[in-house]
Amino acid sequence: MLNYATLKPGELINFKEGVGSTYDLLKKEIQGTLALTSIEELDVWYDDGFLLKEEPPMPSLIIKNTPNPSITDWDVVICGNIMFASSNEDGDTISLTEEATKILSKFKLALLGTNPVWVYHNYEVKQS
Q1: Which of the residues 23, 33, 123, 125 has an alpha carbon 20 to 30 A from that of 54?
Q2: Cα(68)–Cα(123) distance, rounded to whole angstroms?
Q3: Which residues contact 106 (CB under 8 A, 6 or more apart)?
Q4: Model-level pTM greater than 0.85?
Q5: Cα(35)–Cα(96) distance, rounded to whole angstroms?
Q6: pLDDT of 91-103, one tens digit each?
Q7: How far apart are CA 115 and CA 23, in angstroms?
């Protein structure tokens, strides 16, 4: 059994349990070409081919790597469906770890124009 979370454009993060092949779960949830980026223990699976689809891309998650309020070249913008899980030292996909769940809890809902999008600040915010 795999405990994971999903995110679709404009929706809330949804925690789920799945059985069977991890690859089959990923393909079912992502519905596209699988790609991976990580935030510490949190693996972020998404559709790498979202720009090739007919519909305009809808951002789901922005990983801010700089404190600049605008989106920069250093930031990561992910569109379409996302699946969150963790991985072990062998690189196998595993259920969300406690640390990965803590990272997910730091995601903030914001607006990009009129569209809701989740934002994660991947840097330390300095208190003045």
Answers
A1: 23
A2: 11
A3: 120, 121
A4: yes
A5: 18
A6: 999 999 999 999 9
A7: 30
Q: Which helix (H) or strand (E) holds 27?
A: helix 22-30
Q: What is the mean pLDDT of residues 54-71?
A: 89
Q: Tell whether the model's pLDDT for residue 86 goes beyond 70.
A: yes
Both tokens of 47, joined, read 């559709």
For Cα atoms 72, 74, 78, give the angle at the middle one, nearest 5 degrees. Answer: 85
Contacts of 56 (CB under 8 A, 6+ apart): none
Is 103 in contact with 120 (CB distance < 8 Å)?
Answer: yes
The pLDDT of residue 4: 98
